[in-house]
């Protein structure tokens, strides 16, 4: 018995990663020792050695996060602060030139999801952007961080200065996340979804952001490396909190219909094809002043050739990344980009790209799994309802 | 007869010329929660080392190979509705299929229980 497919093969090492490195050449987060103590199974991921699961297993960790609160180490992700070169100016309009999202409209301590695009409208990475005064706080994907930061710094030379922050990042997700976190960081309770704040913790600056990658209410906490293990241990003293690995992180985000960079989106997909235009405000669609805007505009008026969709296989067989999608007349119409088993639904789910003519929810398609056609239908997403706390009274 | 084991973590137990095949406790632990099993049909001919079944966890799909050559006699259809049996009872109720062994000499290529235990220990 051997693994034939796995979502967690190393996707290339990050050169010049500033984190600690093990003898095997993989970088380690500040929580590395804690993962080992917790009995994690470690795998290479984006140049880091990361926990794929702990004792509960992927299924147990997934369900625990949906029911209580899951703690994720996401310190491999890239964090940076962008300052205007002229301290009296605002860096938002400068940064907005690199992304299709609305950044100048971002309110103080507001968070936006957007993408870095290239001249062809392809997606270089997706990221979270938070406004603090006239600066922006950026959180980007681990596998892309060095390229992203080089791209941003070079594109904005003379206009903005990028300070890459070597800090830990924890994510606490689930219905009990607020109750747990506010015991240690009371300011967390004042935030609504997609809002952030600074807080003092033992004299150090931490950043609390109410967002995540699971579809649950939850928080990301950026803190100094040397505080990370102690703070994680403190959170886990609460019985509601269990450590969660990359395995459940992947199944949670798939149920939530969220894209995984390098799989569901990449330089070969545009925000239109990826069905991410909800993150592009009308002002930017009209001003067309971001990289690849002409392509996006063209696809909006003429419809793109293909679209990202949710897919529900009818049987029990999971359809993995790379699975070919056929129409009912056996013509190839696309491919699955993420697929697996949904623990919350106890059924397989997937997302992928199909030709626009087959993208309507309910459309019957066939998935070619190990040479055999399996029935499936196009589904709207998310597969599991989002539980974001949209307003805070 | 006692069980024999492959390097790919299948077990085989011979009862006359009929063999029962499953995956080891080590294998199910490495896989994690099994959510789907694809079994071979009765009558299918398999060669030693060929794919015979598929076992999928939440995060990955893995092949189960035929430990010896022969003809599939009975797939354990119980696994189709209850794939978690592979985790709960890998050595008994979680068996994958039985087969008629065409060349019993192939069993000599496989490890006995003690050799397999050493092999797993080396894997860490």
UniProtKB/TrEMBL annotation, chain A:
Entry GO terms, CC: glycine cleavage complex
UniProt domain Aminomethyltransferase C-terminal: residue ranges: 308-384
Residues annotated for substrate binding in this entry: 220
Disordered as annotated region, ranges: 1-21
Domain GCVT N-terminal positions: 31-280
One of the protein's GO biological processes: methylation
Enzyme's top EC category: transferase
SUPFAM superfamilies the UniProt entry points to: Aminomethyltransferase beta-barrel domain (SSF101790), Folate-binding domain (SSF103025)
Pfam family for this entry, one: GCV_T_C
Entry EC no(s): 2.1.2.10
NCBIfam families reported for this sequence: gcvT, PRK00389.1, PRK13579.1
Family indicated by similarity: Belongs to the GcvT family.
Name of this chain's protein: aminomethyltransferase
TrEMBL record, chain B:
GO cellular component labels: cytosol; glycine cleavage complex
Keyword set, alphabetical order: Lipoyl
KW Oxidoreductase (keyword) present: no
GO biological process, alphabetically ordered: glycine decarboxylation via glycine cleavage system; protein lipoylation
Annotated SUPFAM superfamilies: Single hybrid motif
PROSITE patterns: BIOTINYL_LIPOYL (PS50968), LIPOYL (PS00189)
Chain ranges of the Lipoyl-binding domain: 18-100
Domain of life: Bacteria
Matches recorded under CDD domains: GCS_H
Swiss-Prot/TrEMBL cofactor(s): (R)-lipoate
Pfam families to which the protein is assigned, alphabetical: GCV_H
Modified positions (N6-lipoyllysine) in chain numbering: 59
Role this protein plays: The glycine cleavage system catalyzes the degradation of glycine. The H protein shuttles the methylamine group of glycine from the P protein to the T protein.
Family: Belongs to the GcvH family.
Quaternary structure annotation from Swiss-Prot or TrEMBL: The glycine cleavage system is composed of four proteins: P, T, L and H.
Protein name: Glycine cleavage system H protein
Organism encoding this protein: PS1 clade bacterium
